Every structure is written in structure tokens, then in C-alpha cells.
Amino acid sequence: MASPRKSGRQPLADRMYEVLLGQFTDGRWSAGEPVNIGALSRELDVSQTPLREALARLEHTGLVRREALKGYRVAPLLTEFELVKLMDARLVLEPALAYEAARRTTPEFLAEVLESVDDLARAATSPATAAFSAYWTIDERFHLLIAAQADNPFLEKAYRSLGGQVQRFRFFAKLGSARGAPGLAAEEHRAVYDALVAGEADEAAARMREHIENAKQRVLEDRRSVEATEVPSGR
Asked: Architecture of domain 80-230 in CATH?
């Protein structure tokens, strides 16, 4: 008896999810921008159904929002309060992940982390407009490698659940991406890597905590700098 044919709809929805997520990483979408599903359907040559399924998944990450009678819209920039609380959550999770990863390093894991560190350093020296997508893709790879190596599925799931909110954080980070932040982050990644190589769990946790704290401060300073230069309408 022939086995039933599997529907290709779900894999297509998965692929559209990755395509749309890649567009966010590439900086194609702006915070608050409406998502025209019809235009996307024509552009990507797919029906609207897998796109709607992909957008529903993105909504769960917090990266897009669905408005009644209006459709989907890219989530707005994080407020300063949200930004602080997001980074505080990362400060709880990521040092713990780095600590556990440092206790279970393998040559293969360290090689992958070193590759991401070197790639990030190269991206940091590229023109800001060209480097933005590559920089954040590599940054995400570095953090996910460490989360996976910690070998704690509950901690890793907690970190991955922040994925869409971290993407919203990156909308903010783009504001200051040309003012030295990529180079500083690359140095901080290397400090975490050095601690991993040494097998120093406490040091790896400390260097990760320092990295997240610094990233938080850089983005807050960039946000306040931009707000200070904005001229109120009617003045």
C-alpha cells in the first residue's frame, strides 16, 4: 500500500519564515512598517497562506504584530524600559549559558566559536551599510553556539524565546553601528572565546556579562544621542 503523500505546505511555511526573518536581519524592514502580504506573495511567488503562517510564527517572537482589520506590522522600536528589561533578561541567561558551555567545550565547538569571532572582526571593519546584515547574523551565530553547547535545553529554550525581541534590539543597535560598536563587540566576543578555550567557567560568565552590559549601554547612549538631535515639529 502506497504511503500517503505528505503536504508540502508546512515546509513552505517554514521556508517563508526563514526568508522573512532573513529580510529583518538584512535591514529591509523598518520598525513600525506595515507588511503587505499581497506584495510579498507576488515578490516571492508563493500563495498568501504560507506567508500568513510564517507571519503568525513571527508574531509569537514579538517581531511583528497583528492589528485588527489592518493586518501585520513590524513591531515598533523597543521603548527604553523594554530595552533595559530585555538586556536584564539576557544578563540572567547568557552568563549562565557561557558558564555551562565552558565546562563542556570540544575542539569542534571551539573551532566554530573562533570562526564566528574572526568573521565578526572582519565584518566590523567593513563599511557600515554593507556590514550590518553580516554583523548581526554572525553575532547571533556566536550566541546560539554557546547556548547550544551549555547542554541545558531549558536555558537554551529560554534564550531562544527572546529571539524576536533581540531582533527588535538590533533595530536600535543599527542607530550606532557606524560609531565603533561592531569593533568593540568583536573584542568582547574574543574575550569570551579566550575564557572558553581556557576552560574557565567563571571567567567565561564574567566576560559574557560584561559584553551584554556594554551592549546595553552602547544602545542606550545611541538612543539618547539620536533623541537629543531630533528637532520637535513646529519649532
From this structure: Up-down Bundle (1.20)
Confidence label for 39 from pLDDT (cuts 50, 70 and 90): very high
Enter the pTM of the model.
Answer: 0.77
CATH of 12-74, one of 1.25.40.10, 3.40.50.1100, 1.10.10.10, 2.40.128.50: 1.10.10.10
Q: Are strands 71-74 and 64-67 parallel, antiparallel or unpaired?
A: antiparallel
- CA triplet 187, 158, 21: central angle to 5 degrees? 70
Q: Write out pLDDT tens, residues 132-153.
A: 667 778 888 999 999 999 999 9
